[in-house]
C-alpha cells in the first residue's frame, strides 16, 4: 500500500514504506537540502530501520531526537552531519537496564505510540464513514422551514430604492438622537452654531478648535500635500522612500502646529498679532469661531473647517 504523504503516526514495515517514512522524516526535520553521499544514505537507512522495527513512527523519532527518555532536552544539533546526529541522539533511547535482551535490541518504548499502515488505513476509513454520517443534514423543524420560507420570500422581493433606504436610515438616526434629549430641550441646528458665544461658554469648544486648527496646519502643509496628491494622481501606494519623506514632513508640520497653537492662545491675551506665524494665524481663525460644546467632536471639527474655508 502506498500513500501520497506518509503519516507521522505510522511506522513502516516494508522496504518501499521505509523510503517514504525516511522522506517524511527529512521533510519534517528540515533536512531536504542536506548533501548526502550514497554511503551516508545507506547509513541513515540502516540506523532508522532498527527504530522502525522497534515500532518507532516518524513522530516518535522526531521526539526522541529532541528529548531524552527522562523528558529532558537533548543537545541541539550543531555542526554534525545527519548520520552522526541521528546515531548519537538515538543512542540515548537504548535501554541499558533491560537484561532480557542484548544491548543492540534493548530499546525504550517509543515516546509516542505508533501503528502500522494497515491499522492507520482502517482507522482512516472508519473516521471517514463516521464523518459522513455526522455531516448528513438533519430535517428542518417547522420553525426552521418557516424561517427558510421567509428568507426566500425576502430574497425574491424587489429591492428598495437606495435613496429611500438612505433617507430612512438618516431618519432613524435622527429619531434615535432626539430620544436622547432632556425633556423640554430642542435639538441644535446648524444656524445655532453660527452665533459666537462668550469665551466662558466655549472652553470645551476652544480645545476642539485648537485641535482642528493644528490638524488643518498639518493637512495643508505644502510638502505633505505634494506627496499625497502625487500618489493619488498616480493611483498608487507610497514607496518606502516617499513614506519616510512624508513621515518627516508630518513630524515637522506637527511641530509648527504646536508652536502656532501656543502663539495663537498667547496673542488672545497679549493682543500682539504682528509677529504671528502662518500656523498661528490659521489656528487663531479656528479659535475665533469656537462654538457651543453640545456638538460631537467630528461635527464640531467639520463645522469649524467649513467656516474657516468660507471666510478665507
Structure description:
Residues 132-169 are annotated as: Disordered. Residues 158-169 have a biased composition (Basic and acidic residues). Helices cover 60% and strands 0% of the residues. The chain is mainly alpha-helical and 312 residues long. The protein folds into two domains: 15-119, no CATH class; 192-311, no CATH class. The longest helix has 31 residues, at 240-270. Mean pLDDT is 79; it is low at 199-203.
Spans of 5+ residues with little confidence (pLDDT < 50)?
199-203
Gross geometry: elongated
Assembly status: single chain
Helicity, as a percent range: 55-70%
How many structural units, i.e. domains? 2
Let me know the average pLDDT.
79
Main pleated-sheet profile: none
Number of E strands = 0
Distance from N terminus to C terminus (CA atoms, Å) equals 83 Å
Q: Supply the number of helical segments.
A: 12
Biased composition (Basic and acidic residues): 158-169
Region (Disordered): 132-169
Amino acid at each position: 500500500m502506498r500513500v501520497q504523504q506518509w503519516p507521522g503516526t505510522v511506522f513502516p514495515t516494508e522496504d518501499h514504506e521505509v523510503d517514504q517514512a525516511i522522506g517524511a522524516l527529512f521533510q519534517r526535520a528540515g533536512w531536504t537540502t542536506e548533501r548526502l553521499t550514497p554511503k551516508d544514505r545507506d547509513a541513515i537507512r540502516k540506523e532508522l530501520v532498527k527504530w522502525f522495527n522497534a515500532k518507532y513512527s516518524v513522530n516518535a523519532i522526531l521526539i526522541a531526537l529532541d528529548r531524552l527518555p527522562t523528558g529532558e532536552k537533548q543537545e541541539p544539533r550543531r555542526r554534525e552531519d545527519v548520520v552522526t546526529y541521528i546515531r548519537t541522539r538515538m543512542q540515548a533511547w537504548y535501554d541499558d537496564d533491560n537484561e532480557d535482551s542484548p544491548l543492540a535490541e534493548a530499546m525504550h518504548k517509543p515516546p509516542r505510540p505508533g501503528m502500522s499502515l494497515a491499522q492507520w488505513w482502517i482507522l482512516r476509513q472508519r473516521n471517514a464513514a463516521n464523518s459522513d454520517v455526522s455531516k448528513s443534514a438533519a430535517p428542518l423543524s417547522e420553525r426552521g422551514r418557516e424561517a427558510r420560507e421567509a428568507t426566500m420570500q425576502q430574497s425574491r422581493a424587489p429591492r428598495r430604492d437606495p435613496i429611500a433606504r438612505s433617507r430612512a436610515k438618516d431618519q432613524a438616526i435622527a429619531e434615535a438622537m432626539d430620544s436622547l434629549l432632556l425633556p423640554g430641550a430642542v435639538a441644535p441646528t446648524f444656524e445655532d452654531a453660527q452665533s459666537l458665544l462668550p469665551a466662558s461658554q466655549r472652553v470645551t469648544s476652544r480645545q476642539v478648535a485648537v485641535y482642528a486648527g493644528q490638524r488643518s496646519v498639518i493637512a495643508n502643509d505644502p510638502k505633505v500635500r505634494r506627496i499625497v496628491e502625487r500618489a493619488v494622481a498616480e493611483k498608487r501606494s507610497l514607496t518606502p522612500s516617499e513614506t519616510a519623506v512624508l513621515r518627516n514632513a508630518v513630524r515637522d508640520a506637527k511641530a509648527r502646529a504646536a508652536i502656532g497653537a501656543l502663539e495663537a492662545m498667547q496673542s488672545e491675551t497679549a493682543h500682539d498679532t504682528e509677529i504671528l506665524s502662518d500656523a498661528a494665524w490659521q489656528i487663531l481663525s479656528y479659535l475665533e469661531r469656537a462654538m457651543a460644546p453640545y456638538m460631537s467632536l467630528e461635527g464640531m471639527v467639520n463645522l469649524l473647517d467649513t467656516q474657516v474655508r468660507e471666510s478665507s
